[in-house]
Backbone:
């Protein structure tokens, strides 16, 4: 039986992936930082729970020490906070987002690489935010751009060790993370769609999985614009929003 470990399995995309892989007959190791929340979210579904805060490297190592090897590890957990007032740049908020999304993921990579079977796969959930600099995304965008580099480099360095690597870049997905947003989210999809796109991409062995196609195509085209032109367009979008 195939075995998958998923971080951030207590809500949103991670929860949907845990449910869907369990329904497909995989053994699922569902990770979260709050045992009760994790149990409540996954009640009735047969999973192995694993509890840690990804900011704590030692806690992760202890939590996963006895884990059986996995065919697939999906590092999905993350957080989003925006820089609301650029003139009073909140460096503590910036550090918090980098600590969870980038350093936290690196902590998971360190603890979990030894638990990936030879021939297995490591997948990391980044974001489509890193296609373009977007307003108020100084912290979130930097954390995800950092993840993109980390994952693409791991793909080079883990290949000789027979571990494949996938970078996952979702557009807007309806989850607790985006339910806090107060702006339009073009092309938003639900967690069913996201889970299907991710599982299909991973099953095909894709090194990059970006979705939904329409939004990603627009972002790709915009990312080819000269930076100055994109800056003026982005500023106009900010003025329209406010
Ligand atoms: N939703 C979108 O539109 C979207 C788009 C692109 C990328 N993403 C990325 O997709 C991933 C999943 O997000 P989601 O939208 O499904 O959001 P979500 O429902 O808020 O889920 C986030 C998960 O990460 C966990 N988490 C957060 N901080 C953690 C920490 N310090 N240690 C351990 N676990 C932690 C949360 O645990 P708790 O339940 O304990 O808080 C939760 O299980 C994130 O990396 C996010 O950046 C989301």
Residues:
């Amino acid at each position: 039986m195939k075995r998958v470990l998923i971080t951030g399995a207590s809500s949103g995309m991670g929860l949907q992936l845990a449910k869907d892989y369990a329904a497909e007959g995989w053994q699922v190791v569902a990770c979260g930082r709050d045992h009760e929340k994790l149990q409540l979210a996954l009640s009735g579904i047969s999973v192995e729970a694993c509890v840690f805060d990804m900011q704590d490297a030692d806690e992760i190592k202890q939590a996963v020490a006895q884990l059986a090897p996995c065919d697939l590890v999906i590092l999905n957990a993350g957080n989003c906070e925006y820089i609301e007032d650029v003139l009073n740049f909140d460096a503590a908020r910036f550090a918090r987002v980098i600590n969870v999304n980038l350093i936290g993921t690196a902590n998971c990579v360190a603890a979990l690489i030894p638990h990936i079977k030879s021939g297995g796969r490591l997948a990391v959930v980044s974001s489509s935010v890193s296609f373009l600099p977007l307003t108020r995304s100084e912290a979130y965008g930097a954390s995800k751009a950092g993840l993109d580099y980390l994952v693409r480099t791991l793909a080079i360095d883990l290949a000789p060790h027979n571990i494949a690597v996938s970078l996952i870049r979702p557009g807007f997905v309806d989850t607790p993370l985006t339910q806090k947003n107060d702006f339009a989210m073009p092309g938003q999809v639900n967690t069913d769609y996201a889970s299907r796109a991710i599982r299909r991409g991973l099953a095909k062995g894709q090194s990059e999985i970006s979705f939904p196609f329409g939004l990603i195509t627009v972002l790709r085209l915009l990312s080819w614009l000269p930076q100055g032109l994109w800056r003026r367009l982005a500023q106009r979008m900010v003025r329209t929003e406010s």
Q: What stands out?
A: The first strand starts at residue 3 and ends at 6.
